[in-house]
Amino acid sequence: MDGGGYRYRGRQKPHTAAVQAEKIRKLLREERQRISFNASSVRALSVRLNQQIAQALCDGMKATLLASAAELSRWTVRTIGLSSEDLFPSGLQAEQHLALIGELKSELAELAESKAALEGRRVKLLAAARRLGVMDDFELAALSGLQHETIRKMTWGHQPATAG
Q1: Residues near 84 by Cβ (< 8 Å), separated by ≥ 6?
Q2: Which sign, positive or negative, has the C-alpha torsion 153, 156, 159, 161?
Q3: Domain extent listing, the chain
Q4: Fewer C-beta within 10 Å: the chain N or C terminus?
Q5: Which residues fall within 8 angstroms of residue 146, CB to CB, at 6 or more apart?
Q6: Cα 92 to Cα 151: distance, rounded to the nearest angstrom
Q7: CA nearest neighbour of 125 among 84, 160, 83
């Protein structure tokens, strides 16, 4: 050949399935990070709540009052108090302790709602990926942090919207 003629220099368009799979991979990674951050935030807030309950007990508040404010059993409140040593009276009034405990409880409730929303989005993504057939259950398990059998059970009969 003499080099004349037409040569196509464009790029081949990626397959739609590959594009969808990569989009779902990215979204699942992001959801896993959000769920992990939510869980660590819940742990930190729970520790702060326990510390506040222990401090309130140290300051002389009754376990029954703290149990009702924290929505815990009296046994749990007593256990928290017994597990926290080396506390000294803080001088806070009972109302201040109850207000702090109420704030921490409401923050924990918000995180619980957020967790439910995050897990709902994860189920929709998993269902979309399974419906499209762009990834197998083992790859979905690796991306989501769930076991492949759990993914099957969670998405069974689930009608997802398109992943986008």
Answers
A1: 50, 51, 54, 55, 57, 58
A2: positive
A3: 16-155
A4: N
A5: 126, 140, 154
A6: 49
A7: 160
Note the residue count of the chain: 164
Question: 3-state class of 29 per DSSP?
Answer: helix
Q: Which residues of 28-63 are buried (b: 16+ CB within 10 A; e: fewer)?
A: beebbebbeebeebbeebeebbbebbbbbbbbebeb
In terms of DSSP H, where are the helices of 3-133? 16-58, 63-70, 74-83, 94-132
Query: Whole-angstrom Cα distance, residue 141 to residue 148?
Result: 5
> Quick check: helix, strand or coil at residue 59?
coil
pLDDT digits (tens, 9 = 90+) for 52-104: 999 999 988 999 999 999 999 999 999 998 888 887 878 888 899 999 999 99
pTM of the predicted model as reported, rounded to 2 decimal places: 0.74
